[in-house]
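Box 3.1 — From sequence to structure: Protein C10
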Amino acid sequence: MREEDPGRETWLRLLGNAVVLAEVIQAFSAPENAVRMDEARDNACNDMGKMLQFVLPVATQIQQEVIKAYGFSCDGEGVLKFARLVKSYEAQDPEIASLSGKLKALFLPPMTLPPHGPASGGSVAAS
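Predicted structure (token representation):
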């Protein structure tokens, strides 16, 4: 009986996660899912609270449809487990980190930081 190479097992897990991530991203571009996401974004009106109310549930459903084929439960908990697993491999594999960023960009609005410093009027004059 030969001993398995632990590096090989890790590599297989990394490869599997990259494949599943790519499938999830591809699912968002399916015509019916693209329409669902567009409708949810329109309803959210770029409001973060409404994004959580309208966009996140649709994004979660789209992910569930893909990851259930890979043994994850078909509920919010399954999506959270998948997200945690992906997060744990992001530092080990630049492809997974890149795919994870692409996935997040599909349903999270770009974050803009408020300007800081005197030029932005952020300082208060002493009286």
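Summary of the box: The CA atoms of residues 2 and 93 lie 27 Å apart.
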